[in-house]
Amino acid sequence: MEYLSPESRNFKKTLTALFLGSFIMFANLYSTQPVIAMIARQFRVTPAAASLTLSAATGALAITLFFVSFTSGMFDRKKIMLLALVSSAFLSILVSVIHYLPLLIAVRFVQGALLAGYPSIAMAYVNEEFDKKVLGYVIGIYVSGNSLGGLAGRLIVGTLSDAFSWNVAIGMLGLLNLIMCVLFFLLLPESRHFDPGKSSLKRTTVGFIENIESRPLVLLYVLGFILMGSFVTIYNYIGIPLMAPPYNLSQTLVSFIFVIFLVGTFSSTWMGRLSDHTSKSGVIILSLVLMIIGLFTTLAGPLALKVVGLAMFTFGFFGGHSVASSWVGILANRREKAQSSSLYLFFYYVGSSVVGSTGGLFLQNFGWAGVVFAVCVICAIGVLLALIVHHLVVEGAIHHRRHHLHRHRLAGQHV
Predict the structure, then answer these.
(1) Cα(31)–Cα(352) distance, rounded to whole angstroms?
(2) Which of 63, 75, 109, 347 has the maximum number of C-beta atoms within 10 A of its C-beta?
(3) pLDDT score recorded for residue 406
(4) Are 120 and 69 a contacting pair, CB within 8 Å?
(5) CA distance 52 to 248
(6) Residue 10 belongs to a domain
């Protein structure tokens, strides 16, 4: 069976479906972030307590992704992705009638856990169904759905909350996502290169051991930790210096900083396509260097320069993530691509939680410059990891080629 390529009849339909799925997932996942202040006022709790409505979802997502890595190879790809998206949309609708904070946090935890069924399976689907020559481009389209979904979810809920309650705003987002789920189902073809009947817990466990014993894969997992940890840390705390003198921006104006996510829709696709024709490690290093330069630019006094620096940082992040995640799929064992994708995303979201929280200590003790310095150090470590992965992959390719030539010679001598 042929793999999907730009010449294939279902190529554009499949890309559209994956984009929609990515959009739905991230719109739902980050839906409470823009209304944390409203939630805090309504339930008379601190913003830190209200933020549990977001961290509960992302934390559950990370935890569940680890277990998904053991079971993802046993079930139909399309059905699992559809179940994750539909159930998540229904839970967003349910939020519209919840007026008790512990119940809201519990529902968000379940929502995050259910959403884990989409991202790793989607990346595995891409790596199994698409021609390897266009993987970078396809993953780039998928990641652009991440950025647009995260942006749209925040803006839709934030805007509608002015006209309705924040509960109703999230419920309306759920209805919109439910409609998009129907389109996802109609557009996405069934898997053609995956047979769930061939998977078993024993084989999956063996695959897990292979995945964590692969040094290039483990380093790419850590790279995901670094990329997402850096990204979330900056966006968690950038509002604080912008709301302080001399800028004194309002919360509403600061919330529009998320519009910068739009640069990610371009960079993820452009850098993904670039990595298809050049060195993947080189593109990742370029992404990390852009992130570092962008961060140093945010230390400048003029507000315009801060925005430019943040855009450059965001451009680098989305490009680096799209290339790193597609590289995981290429290096992974063909039978356990979903598992390797799950492990990458597990590290990715753990980075969001761990580094994002730790960044607050640097802000508290050293100000914005402390946050920038800490994230720059982490990004520099990422550059080193990308170089090591490149060396290991090239070394492995040379070893494989020599082994193949040796076997060929032995076969010739035998004849």
Answers:
(1) 16
(2) 347
(3) 46
(4) yes
(5) 27
(6) yes
Report pLDDT for 111: 94
Is 328 in a helix, a strand, or coil? Answer: helix
**Cα–Cα distance for residue pair 257/240, rounded to 1 Å:** 12
Q: Is 184 in contact with 82 (CB distance < 8 Å)? A: yes
Q: What is the pLDDT of residue 275?
A: 82
CATH number of domain containing 389 = 1.20.1250.20
Among 253, 257, 345, smallest CA distance to 306 is for 257
Same domain, 171 and 273: no
Q: Please, are residues 54 and 137 in contact by the beta-carbon 8 Å criterion?
A: no
Half-sphere CA count of 32, side-chain side, radius 13 A: 30
Angle at 69 between CA 68 and CA 73, to 5 degrees: 90
What does the alpha-carbon distance between residue 123 and residue 139 come to, in Å, rounded to a whole number? 8
CA-based Rg of the chain, rounded to a whole angstrom? 22
Residue 207 lies in a domain: no
Q: Are 53 and 112 in contact (CB under 8 A)?
A: no
Whether 209 maps to a domain, the answer reads no
User: Which residue do the tokens 């009849």 mark?
Assistant: 9
| Range of the structural domain that residue 344 is part of | 214-415
Span 209-232, pLDDT tens digits:
776 778 888 999 999 999 998 998
Number of domains in the chain: 2
| String of DSSP letters for 253-264 | HHHGGGGGGHHH
134-137 long-range contacts, CB within 8 A, separation 24+: 134/5, 134/6, 134/276, 135/276, 135/326, 135/329, 135/330, 136/271, 136/272, 136/273, 136/274, 136/275, 136/276, 136/280, 136/322, 136/323, 136/326, 137/269, 137/272, 137/273, 137/276
The single-letter DSSP state of residue 130 is: B
In a domain, 30, yes or no: yes
Residues 260 and 181 reside in one and the same domain: no
**Residues of the chain under the 50 pLDDT cut:** 399-400, 402-406, 415
